[in-house]
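Students often ask what a 'structure token' actually looks like in practice. Rather than answer in the abstract, let us consider AEC family transporter, a protein of 300 residues. Its sequence is given first.
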Amino acid sequence: MLAALLQVILPVVIVAAVGMLLARNFRLDPDTIGKINLYGLTAPLAFDSLMKTKVTLSEGLVLGGGLLLVTALAAVVAWLATFRSARGTQRGVVGAVILGNNGNFGLPIALLALGQAGLDQAMILFLFSLVVMFTVGPILMGSGGGLLAGLKNFAKLPVTWAMALAAILRLLGWQLPVGVTRGIELLAGAAVPMVLLALGVQLAQSRRLHLTRPVLTAVALRVVGVPLLAVGVARLLQMDALSTSSLVLASAMPTAVNAFMLAREYGSDPETAASAVALSTVLSIATLAFVISVIPASVV
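Now compare that with the structural description of the same chain:
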């Protein structure tokens, strides 16, 4: 566990801490930084990873299906755990539990913990998490647009088109010109440190923690309950060591900042969601170190 803290978690904390220091000393706009990451860097990273990945279609579908199953089970557990809470609070808690930070936290940790093969699988899981975030997320938080509106939003994301283009090129056996490929690789290389800087900026600008019962419930389920569900799902689907590690690691990520943004947008107790984001991120330093120390040694 100490090795996991020093070799995997510490590098992530250092880069995020730089982001926090920058946010404390300069006026930074997290929305702008988020757009740079989502629209300018994540898509090249996804394209580059998919062009080079050794993950097969069947493996990708099993990984994605596993994540969706874990998400569905976690939603049921969170809903039952907050059955007596106000409807808005209940929605906020469920959102905080099922919407994990598989982007600016999950991708760097997967790379450091599981290597390039782990990053490739983390990108697949990230794509499926985006589907959940932009379709189920708004509906859960109270959007009246329904599933169709969520799918339209997902279809507009550059990462969706980047992965679709990479899949087509791989099926046809084509390659982009060397100059274009190198440009994409440069952008992809900037994605991991940039998302960590963005995480630090977001944490520095977080509101004060409110340690209410819904917040503690959401955080406990997110950092402990969801990884345990992932272990069970991985066994149910008979995943290999790397896929099991990738799914459990992705499920152990803290609550995504977008859970707060969606809760604020649709009025589903944003205070609870904001506190869940901050507290789960801090606690996940220890829980992720534990998870990394116990995942199958053959893939580390």
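One point worth highlighting: The chain has one domain: 2-294. Ask yourself how you might have guessed this from the sequence alone, and why that guess would often be unreliable.
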